[in-house]
Amino acid sequence: MDTKFKRNFSIIAHIDHGKSTLADRLLQITNTVSEREMKEQLLDSMDLEREKGITIKAQAVTLFYDAKDGNRYELNLIDTPGHVDFIYEVSRSLAACEGALLVVDAAQGVEAQTLANVYLALENDLEILPVINKIDLPAADPEKVKEEIETVIGLDTDEAVLTSAKSGIGIEELLEEIVKKVPSPSGKPESPLKVLIFDSHFDDFRGVITYVRIVEGTLKKGDKLRIWSTGKDIEVLECGIFSPIMKPQNELTAGSVGYIISGIKSIQDTRIGDTIFNPKNPIEEPLEGYRPAQSMVFAGIYPISTEDYEDLREALEKLQLNDASLSFTPETSTALGFGFRCGFLGLLHMEIIVERLRREYNIDLISTTPSVEYRIHMENGEIKIIDNPAEFPIVGKKAVEEPYIKGTVITPKDYVGNVMELCQEKRGIYVDMQYLDETRTMITYELPLAEIVLDFYDKLKSKTKGYASFEYEMIGYKESKLVKVDILVSGEPVDAFSFICHSDNAYYRGRAITEKLKDVIPRQMFEIPIQAALGSKIIARETIRAYRKNVLAKCYGGDISRKKKLLEKQKQGKKRMKQIGNVEIPQEAFISVLKLD
Ligand code: GTP
């Protein structure tokens, strides 16, 4: 098809503002899927994704629309992940588009996430079409939302489309707007080939499926191509479009979006953002903006039972096949045994991986407290980068730096005080406050990433009754007074309990952990001191008194089978204990310490 009849666009929206429902409607009205085939929320295909109600992986679909001007248009809708953890994937997906539909809930208004994605779309020079959705709701106030879009984002909303994705209002009008307003792609089919990889996934039968946007040139089945950053040669075994299932084509031309299959076995080889070109007709420069995904949050993952170690490794390898942003290396802990140090894009990414390991691979595991990457300047000029408290040097440090973010919170004005209090408590530096309208406020703070990864979201939710939305971006490293606190059980340091924190919080957090451990470690036959230590200085101490637990005490009658059962239960309980020196620590202790706030 001639590029002038192609339109590539994305939908950006805050969670729950109706992105998936709207996408479904577009598919339905263009007969891309028949009503019968229409499965609710077709674009969100992963189970976990549906359960958590968020879109994780970008996906694409090609629609053909017969517009009122009598022409048939190829519309490529590229779905983007909704969460900040996947912001890099969002930005690559947007790079494959010329336009974006900005969907805003008519009853809720602009939220923090909407903003972050709009800024990304603007950076990518996309034409943004405001869409006010859910106008069927009794609480809908499209005029107010339009005003908000104008003041906060500065977009003209005169021609904003009003829709109800649920009841199908305004969908046709929206398609017309897309055809009219979204620019057609500028690439030429006869130019040297330049292909953007904007996503990829691993299929058990077909190997890696690479999602591509043909930026320049023409790609044909059988072409022998090369990937820019790795220099790896590939052969196009199949190329095609998503409609929404994969539909093979003989060629894909400039401006089109689709997939290629090239027999690649690992998605590590087809990184998001990379460029594919044809070495027979080489290009001078790759497409802009490629960078490998970077882990922001790190944690140890340990199987509860050591027999599961190999299964855990296999499971991680499998997950990595489909997720190039997951990294892991083997790690040992005296307390937890053999496990893996894993790197994640963010906390949500970590939660999803841990949940999938538990659910899809049936592995019981413990994850350590998430940590960030610290930069340590040593006296000898060396710079150490560490993400594990165990590697924190005790002597020879000159300065320690930690990653900071710029966080934006949008909240009803009644909760402004609570939000500011929380940000201060989390060592935030106030930047700015802006009134969006008479009821809502946007607050900006700089905060240490380490404070965000712990429990910021949960606290923000509870302090604003769930009304605030939050978004952040990395702004770089800042020097902080950071220390490592060790926890000693019976005089022995337990590495899994160690943590890095700001020196002002060391005493309070040390005491909270020792108190918690006192409650969860059962009494044993001797006295057990539990201490928190800053280097050689003890900053908190609790003692568990000696005690012998007689499990049969409850059993007054002579029922022998009941006695046996209780003894058996005690034995089982022992199995789930970890021996540290002469003290047995139950698994629950590790978990409860990690959950400490
Ligand atoms: P994520 O995938 O979580 O980012 O959410 P989303 O933006 O894709 O939202 P989704 O389409 O899942 O819609 C969220 C909820 O809003 C669902 O319960 C939809 O049924 C509902 N919804 C979507 N559009 C409309 C609409 O126009 N009117 C009404 N009343 N409800 C809608």
Automatic annotation (TrEMBL):
What's its EC?
3.6.5.n1
Which GO CC annotations does the UniProt entry carry?
plasma membrane
- Signal sequence region: none
Q: Where does GTP bind?
A: D16, H17, G18, K19, S20, T21, N133, K134, I135, D136
Q: Where would I find the Tr-type G domain in this sequence? A: 4-186
Q: Which Pfam families match?
A: EFG_C, EFG_III, GTP_EFTU, GTP_EFTU_D2, LepA_C
Q: Which CDD domains match?
A: EF4_II, EF4_III, LepA, lepA_C
Q: Where in the cell is it found?
A: Cell membrane
PROSITE patterns annotated for this entry? G_TR_1, G_TR_2
Q: Which GO terms describe its molecular function?
A: GTP binding; GTPase activity; ribosome binding; translation elongation factor activity
Per the record, the major location class is membrane
Which Gene3D superfamilies does its entry note?
3.30.70.240, Elongation factor 4, C-terminal domain, Elongation Factor G (Translational Gtpase), domain 3, P-loop containing nucleotide triphosphate hydrolases, Translation factors
Q: How does it sit in the membrane?
A: Peripheral membrane protein
Which reaction equations make up its catalytic activity? GTP + H2O = GDP + phosphate + H(+)
**Regions annotated as coiled coil:** none
Return the InterPro entries for the record.
Answer: EF-4 (IPR006297), EFG_II (IPR041095), EFG_III/V (IPR035647), EFG_V-like (IPR000640), EFTu-like_2 (IPR004161), G_TR_CS (IPR031157), LepA_C_sf (IPR038363), LepA_CTD (IPR013842)
One BP annotation, GO:
positive regulation of translation
Q: Which UniProt keywords apply?
A: Cell membrane, GTP-binding, Hydrolase, Membrane, Nucleotide-binding, Protein biosynthesis
**What family does the database annotate?**
Belongs to the GTP-binding elongation factor family. LepA subfamily.
Q: What does this protein do?
A: Required for accurate and efficient protein synthesis under certain stress conditions. May act as a fidelity factor of the translation reaction, by catalyzing a one-codon backward translocation of tRNAs on improperly translocated ribosomes. Back-translocation proceeds from a post-translocation (POST) complex to a pre-translocation (PRE) complex, thus giving elongation factor G a second chance to translocate the tRNAs correctly. Binds to ribosomes in a GTP-dependent manner.
Q: What PANTHER family does the entry give?
A: TRANSLATION FACTOR GUF1 HOMOLOG, CHLOROPLASTIC, TRANSLATION FACTOR GUF1-RELATED
Q: NCBIfam families from the xrefs?
A: lepA, small_GTP
Official protein name in the record: Elongation factor 4
Q: Which organism is it from?
A: Hypnocyclicus thermotrophus
